[in-house]
What we know:
single chain, alpha+beta
Amino acid sequence: MQEIVKGANVSLTALSEDAGSVVVSLSWTSATGAGDADVSVLLLDENGKVRTENDFYFYNNPAAADGSVQLLGKTPTENGDEDRIGVDLAAVPQDVVRIVVAASQYGDASFGDLDDLRMTVADRSGEPLVGFSIEDASVETAFIFGELYRRGEEWKFRAVGQGYETGLAGLATDFGITVLEEADEPGALAEAGGAEEPGALAEAEAAGSPKAEVPEVVPAGPAAPSLPASSAEPTPAEPDAAEPNAAVPAQTRGRAPRTTKKKTTLPRAAKKSLAENDGWRPARLFPVPTLKSDREREVRATSVLLSVMEQVPEFGRRLTAAFGAPAGRMQTFTEVPLPHGDTPKRPDGVIRVERAGKLWTALVETKTNGNPLKAEQVQAYMDIAARRGYEAVITLSNDVALEGTAMVDIKVDGRRKHKVGLWHLSWAEVAHQAQMLIHHEGVGNPAHAWLLQELLAYLQHENSGCHGFQNMGPAWVPVRNGIEDETIDLGDGRAVEVVESWERLVRQVCLRLGGELGQKALPVQRTRRGSDAQARRVAAAERLCTEGRLSAELRIEGTSNVIAVVADLRTGKVRTSVDVPAPEGSYPLVIVKRLLRLLAEAPADLHVQSLVAEGNGPRGTLERLRPEPGDLLPRDGAPLTGFRLTLIKGMGAGRGNTESGFIRSVDDAVDRFHQGVVAHLSSAGSRPGRRG
């Protein structure tokens, strides 16, 4: 990969023969794990302005109808986050000469709060071509990382690194987008008999500001509407009258995503059944009760998934864009015989995508019911793909991929000119993407939404074998027993295996929670700069051996809430908790009463602990505190800084995903805590549903 400095440029076609479709990645790290930014992409004409409302892409408008741009979403890395964008350069309209890639912060945050700001561009196979690191970020709240631009028949990349102290509003103004000021919104909750206060407890006052008001682009005319921006930002000038397609963003908080076409989503609540009794089973497009063997499950699952990918363009593109596939006509096939020496191979599936006369192809290897991928099988498919010119091999199983850990060990012949990308999907990720489309983001027509619903019903059926990560592995039982009887030694390699399984479980919990909420839920990694994934896991394994605990933190994107999850193997308990800051300027007893009102529907066994500047204050369950809220006040008169809310649940012992298993108990604990506690706080003030 070629490293360039600020202001430098390089030809993409000179770096790779396979740069017709690229994946742009923006990444950053944070020492606290709380740093975040929103990515946006602007398509500009020769005048340096957006042409129409469809030239601005962000979280509420993530994909171009022609497939030229698609925001692939945020993924956790070793020390932070990475946002990826798929750009099909062959599909970019001819009158677009520049593609600007930017990111913006929100609230009082700035890019100086983040570390390791970086942009990379990879080709269709996933091979990194060029990288650029930003080292001078300070008070800027928006940044142009870089841009792709035309020079004749080729595309080039320029490292820009330009920051804006005026945030997204200042950046948008440069490209023909206007934002105007508006008064702040009134508070959502008022104290009984008192003046209205903004938000719920500290969730509206101190738990973190909502994200930057990322604009939704609408056409600007002579009487175009205006958008409120932060009162700290100056009002930009009106767009040039000579620009008839200049755009004005409109406020999106609390609104449904704006798209160029109406999208179809399905309601969560099922209509009243016409069945005579509850024992009747509804007819399904993809029946599964007859599946008995692993081979039957693999064949059926592959065929069901690939057929839906072909018939629902949004879904097929969502699953393949991250692997370098263009947006085009997709065809899928199963059980395709391919020559391989004396013994022909038969991959589970083949995906072919045609765009502008060019063909992108991938082999698919599927496993279900927790069966592991076989290295020799994947190696054979990689060799076949390299010889026959396939762009990718996609593996699909119940397992979840981790940063820095290969799903299978393969050898790549560096002498071959043609590069093949090896990618992995988990069944949990497939279900997550289907859920996001049918319940939150929408698809092109009702038939496609119904197809996705049938696919989701199939994946979630107990006989499908597509339930995601469901086994903590062979090391789980001996490590758990060693911790219980205090016989496990530091440096035991099995503890590292358990930590890796724990990380897979946490990522799957995030996928499930994110699919329910319509927002990304991401693990928070609090590690030192420069530390690698394996070193982090070794350190976590040492803590597991000495303390007997597995711990993780989850953050719902767009909120300041960080949910801590601790599995204590010595006590057999799973603890889920969240810290809620207390607002300033109110009497402590008023703050406590307001908190208890917000938690009126929370479980009675919720533990509430007051936090002070140095240490912890009194604690008790909601059941005991509701009649006596004063018991939560610090007895020595110490200033109240916040509260810690905790639910404690019994931990399953089995390594699998059965009703009594550890995986199920962790998943249920997070679900109960979010629904019973965090959702009540969020609905009152912190507005985590910004992206729903």
